[in-house]
Amino acid sequence: MRISQETIETVRSRADVVEVIQDFVSLKKKGTNWTACCPFHNEKTPSFSVSPAKGIYKCFGCGKAGDSITFVQEIEGLSYPEAVVYLAKKYQIPVDYLKGEPDLDKESQNERESIFIALNFALQFFQTQLAESEEGRSLGKTYFQERSFSEATLQHFQLGYSLSGWDSLYQAALAQGFTQDILLKAGLITVTEQGKVYDRFRERVMFPIHNLAGKAVGFGARLLTKQAKQAKYLNSPETVVYQKSKILYGLFQAKQAIRQQDVCYLVEGYTDVISLHQAGIENVVASSGTSLTTDQIRLVNRFTQHIVLLYDGDQAGIKASLRGTDMILAEGMQVEIVVFPDGDDPDSFIKKVGTNPFLAYVKQHAKDFIRFKTDFYLQEAQNDPVQKAQALKEVLQSVVQVPDTLRRSFFLKELSDSFGLEESILIDECNKILLQKHKQTTSPAQAIGLPETSETDEVDPVADLWAEPEIVSPQMVKERALIALLLLYADYDLQPDKKFCHYLFEEIADIHFTHPVYEQILEQYKLFLEKGTIATAQLLLEQATDPVLKEEIIHLITPKYKLSENWEKKHAILTTKDEDILHELAYKAILRLKLRYIRKLIQDNLQALANAQDSLELQDELLQQGMHLKDLEKEIAKLLGNVVMK
Does residue 41 share a domain with residue 55? Predict the structure, then answer.
């Protein structure tokens, strides 16, 4: 069944786009809008903008755009109906369904939703076994009590216990109507080649792993008894809702604290996260049984650019971890390392000293990653010149990852003092590494300075405001400029008796737009005008069902550049608003589109002339048409102030 349009409209109107996005990204207020680094692509400078007034977001780097529903859809990989239901639950809005209406996305939507429901059933089953079964209380509860986890903590992290029986969960799930196929796809059961089915998790304490929306997507589990051929730690397999490399344990519970404190503590184990959280240190996460990945780093980067790695005193473990930390530097983030005394990890240390002494220790012993790595390798090298040279190479490999040239320069200055070498030598070594990296990532054309495109066209200042990063045709650029003006100023009084939209449609009556989305927008406007309504961009957005159409409308009503309101006052420079010169902007934009259209007709005319070698009469007719088109081209170019070459 499909969700009713009334429900969708209620969700769209009630869902605060800033509030929704802040569940996943740390936003900063800038004027009337909010900004952040885009969560959909890798960037160092924020180009992601959220407009609460319009209820939309737009990234000027990758072009992603939409409203609160499409944001949840994109960030969580949900279908449109799933995103609507997610927001309806968040804002406690009843969801009405249309009976008998087919849902084109039903199969994929139902499978994902069924997997989530199965995982949630398993979570509740494990919680119940921990609290009520004799086995769960004697083994699971004892384990958690030994770690001083309170009942409130068990509930907050939804911890549980899996029974020792071969198929306890499987049988309970079947009784509730779950199919073997869904349970298998959720990673909850295993099926042998002989067809025997058994629970994946048995006789283990269970740590649910949540996505940023708070849904259980998988489990981490620890075996409590010594069994041959049984791994002590076991995670859920990769599924359509769980990819280990893209999940951080505890981030759902920690994201608000990370945003507020602008720092994230990264630890190794689930119990480290839980113990620190219980002690009041909530801005802490752990990788889900894997080495740190770029996707996980970028997850943290949505909320802060400051990571502090908390290590135990194991030297071999530290050395292995150092190799993966360069990825954090490459993301432009600040990285610090804290090492606890031998024999202690974050879990044991917080229990030994308490919250305030723990935080004081972290503050006192936090060391910048480059300095930490330098001291670590120099201590290993002692006075051996060969090992010192190798140590320097290891450290420089990290330094070159730092994208900020100023920070990199300060690190090189410190390394010069630490290794007793001239700074120029270190700069040369860095340049060699950077040159090698550049060769590996640069195309041959870029290396010799060739331009990516060779097409030239007259400059269109209006179109440039809505320029996209992808390569587009000159014709599309001209069309885009006019559609943008239409979306922004359709109802504007161009003359006392004429709205801007009426003027525009009169001028472009004989022009066919080549871009299907722009043609679709024009058709929508015409339909509204026939009903006596001048459509606003907001009205078109509300009516749009095509995500491509919706994204393009948002792109066009959020121009890339906007002068500050204080510009005129601060610099004593008069600025002109678009609406003040709308007639001129539209007039020139229409001329540019007509010029491009005529040039296309000239090319078609030349091609037709080349194909008319057998007919002198047709050639003569085409030549006359060509001359007329060239005259029109010169006339329009003259009005625009351009020169047409003969």
Answer: yes
Each residue of 535-594: pLDDT tens digit? 888 888 877 777 788 888 888 887 654 444 444 454 444 444 455 566 777 777 788 878
String of DSSP letters for 41-79? S--SS--EEEETTTTEEEETTT--EE-HHHHHHHHHT--
Residues 504 and 592 in one domain: yes
Residue pair 244/235 in contact (Cβ under 8 Å)? The answer is: yes
Q: How confident is the model at residue 438 (pLDDT cuts 50, 70, 90)?
A: low
Distance separating alpha carbons of residues 311 and 250, to the nearest angstrom = 17
3-state secondary structure 433-497: HHHHHHHHHCCHHHHCCCCCCCCCCCCCHHHHHCCCCCCCCHHHHHHHHHHHHHHHHCCCEEECC
The type of residue at 500 is F
Does 127 fall in a domain? Answer: yes
Provide the 3-class DSSP secondary structure of residue 220. strand
Domain membership of residue 359 as a residue range: 245-365
- Domain check: are 409 and 509 in the same one? no
59 in the same domain as 111: no
Residue 608 token pair = 């037709």
Query: How far apart are the C-alpha atoms of 507 and 626, rounded to whole Å?
Result: 23
Residues 6 or more apart whose Cβ sits within 8 Å of residue 554: 56, 57, 58, 65, 66, 67, 541
In a domain, 553, yes or no: yes
Q: Which two tokens stand for residue 363?
A: 């503050």
Which two tokens mark 581?
């010169």
Q: Which of 422, 428, 420, 368 is nearest to 396 (CA)?
A: 428
Domain boundary residue, one of 221, 242, 263: 242
- Looking at the domain assignment, is residue 82 inside a domain? yes
Do residues 237 and 255 both lie within one domain? no
pLDDT band at 440 (very low <50, low <70, confident <90, very high): low
> Residue 210 corresponds to which amino acid?
H
Residue 612 is encoded by which pair of tokens?
Answer: 């008319």
Both 601 and 508 in one domain: the answer is yes
Strand partners, 337: 309, 367
Give the tens place of pLDDT for each residue, 278-329: 999 999 999 866 788 999 999 999 899 999 999 887 777 677 777 778 899 9
Q: How far apart are CA 265 and CA 285, in angstroms?
A: 6
Q: Are 499 and 574 in contact (CB under 8 A)?
A: no
Residue 367, judged by CB atoms within 10 A of its CB (0-12, 13-18, 19+), counts as middle
**DSSP 8-state class, residue 101:** -
Torsions phi, psi for 210 (to 5 deg): -105, 150
**Residues 491 and 588 placed together within one structural domain of the fold:** yes
Shared domain for 290 and 393, answered yes or no, is: no
Cα distance between residue 207 and residue 205, in whole Å: 7
In a domain, 402, yes or no: yes
- Render the burial of 472-508: b for 16+ CB within 10 Å, e for the rest: eebbbbbbbbbbbbbbbbbebebeeeebbbebbeebb
More confident residue, 184 or 436: 184
pTM above 0.85, yes or no: no
Residue where a domain stops, chosen among 104, 119, 152: 104
CATH number of the domain encompassing residue 139: 3.90.980.10
Tell me how many domains the chain contains.
Answer: 5
How does residue 96 score in pLDDT terms, banded at 50, 70 and 90? confident
CATH of the domain at 597: 1.10.860
CA end-to-end span of the chain: 64
Give the per-residue pLDDT at 221: 96
